[in-house]
Amino acid sequence: MLVGTYEHKIDSKARIVLPSKFREELGDCVFSTIGIDRCVSLYSRSRWENVMTKLQDLPFSKSKTRGLLRVMLASAHELPVDSAGRILLPPVLRQHGDLSQDVVFVGVNDHVELWDRDRWYEYREEMVGELSEIAEGVEGF
User: Fold this and answer.
1) Can you give the pTM of this predicted structure?
2) First-to-last CA distance in the chain?
3) H-helix or E-strand spanning residue 44
């Protein structure tokens, strides 16, 4: 299970060190794509295969499905983890998340999200302020 929050910096060559707590579960190759809410989603190989299975079962005849598939998969990248535990973030992902230097890795159970640090803390504060309302609206919680 991927949980926790870790602050890191993107270096001048667009590389970032994966937190050691996440590196073990993500493995030596990370699958990434644009995430919802202007972040970048990172998956292990097995979790990415699960995502791909779900996507294959969606009806391509629906315009929203086509849009989701096109944008998600056109932005997807297989990112090898180097010997220093770093991944190289492609420009399309950095642009989507507005990631320049200070970032936050957020564990979200089956994947990790990479956020611009300031955007993450703004989003988190907003969600914490609405937490009781959110909990009431989440079925099964």
Assistant:
1) 0.91
2) 18
3) none
Torsion angle of the four alpha carbons 132, 138, 140, 141, in this order, in degrees rounded to the nearest 10: -30
Q: How far is CA 131 from CA 109, 125, 126, 135, in A?
A: 18, 10, 9, 6
Phi-psi category of 4—alpha, beta or left, where left has phi over 0 and alpha has psi -120 to 50?
A: left
9 touches 81 (CB < 8 A): no
Q: 């056109």: which residue's tokens?
A: 74
- Assess whether pLDDT exceeds 80 at residue 120: yes
- Among residues 70, 81, 84, which one has the least CA distance to residue 43? 81
Tokens at residue 32, please? 């990434």
**Secondary structure letter of residue 19 according to DSSP:** P
Which residues sit opposite 32 in a β-bridge? 42, 77
> 13-72: per-residue pLDDT in tens?
999 999 999 999 999 999 999 999 999 999 999 999 999 999 989 999 999 999 999 999
Helices then strands (H, E): number in the chain? 6, 8
